[in-house]
Amino acid sequence: MTPIDAATFRHALGRFPSGVTVVTVRGDDGRDYGMTVSAFASLSLAPPLVLVCIGDDATIAGAVAAAGHFAVSVLSQDQEPLARRFADSDADRFAGTAVVRGVSGLALLDGAVAHLQCAIVARHRGGDHTIVVGEVIAASTVEGGRPLIYELGEYRRLR
Ligand SMILES: Cc1cc2nc3c(=O)[nH]c(=O)nc-3n(C[C@H](O)[C@H](O)[C@H](O)COP(=O)(O)O)c2cc1C
Q1: Which of 24, 31, 35, 53 maximizes ligand 1 atoms within 8 Å of its Cβ, making it the mutation to test the pocket?
Q2: Can you tell me which atom of ligand 1 is nearest the CA of 18?
Q3: What pLDDT, in 10s, does the model give residues 94-149?
Q4: Is the overall model pTM greater than 0.90, yes or no?
Q5: Which one of 2.40.30.170, 3.40.50.10610, 2.60.120.260, 2.30.110.10 gives the CATH number of domain 6-157?
Q6: Pocket residues for ligand 1 (CB within 6 Å)?
Q7: Measured from the CA of 54, which atom of ligand 1 is nearest?
Q8: Do residues 24 and 33 lie in contact, with contact meaning Cβ atoms separated by under 8 Å?
Q9: Are 79 and 142 in contact (CB under 8 A)?
Q10: What residue ranges do the domains of the chain occupy?
Q11: 49-105 pLDDT, tens per residue?
């Protein structure tokens, strides 16, 4: 069977709307690392597990590989600028970004509709990504907060 071309694959995936998160880790150097991630999913209720998929070429990949914890900030519909900034290779992502500190000093983006703090319990290879599995050790939500949506390559709001 011939493999499908990348454009067809991306186009089909674009029909699946997702929320938008920023995944953060604390590096061994004490610095914050963060990236916009839509490949986030719930995995298990007992124990409470989630997963994120991190590309091998992502600049935060090394920090994630060395980290014991990660945090997920689920962006609100007003945080499209942060989604763009944390996906921009040239941006100083944390400059001017309001954060609160979680366990192990993890950066949690202020204004997010939910925060999940996770202890990394497994890593699996998946093509050119690593599937990072985290046990959720703390979670908080903002009641009434509306999430940012990504669909067909565009940021959208729920009606
Ligand atoms: C909406 C959106 C979702 C993304 N989701 C992921 C993802 O799930 N996993 C991933 O590795 N990169 C994802 N990216 C790409 C990274 O955010 C980032 O743009 C890319 O790694 C380049 O940044 P870098 O030079 O710091 O690696 C996404 C980008 C956007 C705009």
Answers
A1: 35
A2: 1
A3: 999 999 999 989 999 999 999 999 999 999 999 999 999 999 999 999 999 999 99
A4: yes
A5: 2.30.110.10
A6: 20, 35-39, 53-55, 58-59, 83, 87, 89, 150
A7: 11
A8: yes
A9: no
A10: 6-157
A11: 999 999 999 999 999 999 999 999 999 999 999 999 999 999 999 999 999 999 989
Per the document, the length of the chain is 159
